[in-house]
Amino acid sequence: MQSSFEAIIFTGGNENCDNHSGALETVLFRPAAEWVFCAVSKAGAKQVVFTTALADVPSAEGVSVMAGVSDLAEFAASCGEHLLLVCGETPLLTARTIRRAQELHIKNGYDLTAVKTERTRTAAVWCKRDCFIKAVEMYGEVSPHSLFKSRGLRCAVCFPGDQSELMRITDKFT
User: Fold this and answer.
1) C-alpha–C-alpha distance, residues 83 and 29, integer Å
2) Measured between alpha carbons, how far is 36 from 152 in angstroms, rounded to an integer?
3) Which helix (H) or strand (E) holds 110?
4) Residue from 119, 121, 120, 115 nearest 84 by CA
């Protein structure tokens, strides 16, 4: 199994995201997206890209900020075979769930593997690099949700052990 990987954390504020303003809300003294960054790093990410400028981007090796779709496509082209896309508004997502989804994705050769429950929007997606680049070229946008527009892909869902991991921060009161 692949031990290290590249990841994109969607934090909102640009054309690439639905409405991820919750990624910037404070959860236990940190932006929600920083908690996501910690889980992704612990799961083995060697390089992490945030999709918008955050006031407090975690200072760590392999972290950068990108806004344009073309920048993300260029980043993906330099990645390994598999890429992790994560919504920055899911601060309870764990490294364990990320690794379980990665194992399911790679072991079974899926094109896309979503981390979600039956009732939640997609919190994270493991995808083959080529599927990601193709989706960017076809739709001119990209998010963990938009990848499923593509037809003819082998897809799977990895359900977290605890559904609360996928709780979203949508505003100051969630």
Assistant:
1) 29
2) 30
3) none
4) 115
Strands 82-87 and 5-10: parallel
Question: Which residues, 6+ apart, have CB-to-CB distance to 88 below 8 Å?
Answer: 9, 10, 11, 12, 20, 22, 23, 24, 31, 32, 33, 36, 50
- Residues found in the chain: 174
* Model pTM score: 0.80
Tokens of 55: 């006031």
Contact 100, 158 (CB under 8 A): yes
For tokens 């990841």, what's the residue? 7
pLDDT band at 17 (very low <50, low <70, confident <90, very high): very low
Are 124 and 158 in contact, with CB atoms under 8 Å apart?
A: no
